[in-house]
Every structure is written in structure tokens, then in C-alpha cells.
């Protein structure tokens, strides 16, 4: 039983594999237009204190595809604006008897704190520069869908590693699934001691791209920097952006991921973002399947087991 999904360091390889296999089972059910009722009678609350397009909408869609109801909370139009605290807000929502809380917050650790005050499952939809577990699960799912396996694949994560929750969660999950992970960024966008990440760190895209099976591009997170840590956006793009010339260094069959939102022309050239190597929109769709899996595993584990058995899935 998995009570909450807050931190990828807590997940075992077996648990990660379970989420991915359940997502695959849901993919097949959705393709067959099967009506799913695993969350029937349940309500999921999306509590978002930061902007989101993909994560919030895909959690909403995932809940609906499983037959559940969804309520979405936006901090900017709530009583938070009148001074209500995060914990009081979450307790108020729990008093309405929902069945799970999906939370995004700018402060690292806030989903963890909430999980200590609540009795329903808490799912981290991104907390500051700490973690974004469902993004890493959907990235792993997408890579395996495109390349067959993660085992012994080289994944290069390029961009603003220092401020990226996506990089942290992906490093943990991809390594547990057998991939070799490397990061590549200007020194100012890497942690002061890159070895804390537990992966190889490089500074020049030209050194790391030829060996990559997967390139994961990241946006520069200006909103998490006290002052701009690169000389200029133009210079960053010139030396660190994935343009046509750098993409030509990739092996045949190598794929390009980006968690979105993409800053076209900064970290990724429009031509490359829209090329055959890009799987960005597959990531978006797979986000629904993976979030269906996460909600089902956390909210209705027994019901899910019965459904899997009935459908002949041995996960
Ligand atoms: N990848 C991601 O978290 O996107 P959103 O901010 O749009 O949810």
C-alpha cells in the first residue's frame, strides 16, 4: 500500500514498475473506449498554489476517466488571499470529505507537511525546486514506450538543473529503472557541488549529445532565481539551446523530451521542438495515463486489483 506520493526517493523499483504497468493497462482500456469506474463516488481536489496547464488538467481528466469527481482550487481566487494558511486551507478542504488531495506549491516540502495533518492521500504535483514525481513517472513511461526499455539507456538532462524539481525526480526514477543519467548545464545552473545529484555532470552540450539515447530539455526557471544566473537569454540560447546543429549530433533513434512549458527559441528551437525526434505531446497524453494509475493505486488499491484481475492483467 502506498499512502501518499510525495518524494521519488521513497519509491522502490517495484512500486515504480507497478505504477507504469497500471498506466499501460489503462492505456489499453482507454483505447478500447472502456468505461472505468474505479473512482466512482470519489472526489479528488486539485489544490494549486502555482500556475499549471498540463499537470492540473491531466489530473482532472485522469479523475474523470476513472469515474470520479474533481474540484479544482486556485489560490489566487481563494480565501488564501484573506490570510488563510496552507494548513487551514487543506484542513478546510478535507472537512468536505474528498478522497485525495493533489497539491502544487512553491515551497519545497509543503506536500510532506500537509500529509502530516491530513488522513487522505496527498499527491505532490510539484513543490518548489524539490520534486515532481508524476512528471518523472510519465517521462519514464514515455521513454519505455518509445525505446522499449530504460535499461542501459543514456538520458541527458540539459538546462536549469539547479532549480528543477523535474530533474531531481527524473534522476531518482530513471536510475532505479536502469538508465544512466547525466546532466549538462552552465556551472551557474548546476548545484554548487554537482556530485550531490549522484550523476555525471557536463558543461558542454557538444560533449554529451552524441552518446545520448534521450535528451530531456528543461526550461530556465527564472521564477526560482533571486537574480538571473545567466548573462543573457540570447547567450544561453546560443551556447546551451538545442538547435538544429546540436540536434544533428544525436544518434539515429534518439528522442527529445521536454516537460513543458517550452520557451521556444530559448532552450529549444521551434524546428527541433516540432521534429520527428520530439515526443513532447506524447508526454502530455501519457501524463493522463500515469496520473490515472497514481490515483487508482493510492485511492482504490483493492478495487484496482479486482479490475486488473478481471481484465487479465498480471501486474
Ligand atoms: N510539466 C508541468 O508540470 O507542466 P505544467 O506546469 O503546465 O503543469
Q: If you had to describe this structure to a student in words, what would you say it looks like?
A:
It is a single chain. This protein is an alpha/beta fold. The chain has helices spanning 13-31, 54-65, 86-94, 110-117, 133-147, 165-176, 205-208, 233-240, 244-247, 270-273, 280-299, 301-310, and strands at residues 43-48, 69-74, 100-105, 122-127, 154-158, 180-184, 200-202, 214-217, 255-257. Strand 5, helix 6 and strand 6 form a beta-alpha-beta unit. The longest helix has 20 residues, at 280-299. It is globular, with a radius of gyration of 19 Å. It binds phosphoric acid mono(formamide)ester.
Strand content: 5-15%
**Which radius of gyration do the C-alpha atoms yield?**
19 Å
Average pLDDT value? 95
Give the count of helical stretches: 12
Going by helix content, strand content and strand pairing, the class is: alpha/beta
Bound molecules: phosphoric acid mono(formamide)ester
- Low-confidence runs: none
What does the overall shape look like? Answer: globular
Level of helix content? 25-40%
Strand order of the largest sheet: 7-6-5-8-9
Number-wise, the strands total 9
Distance between the termini: 14 Å
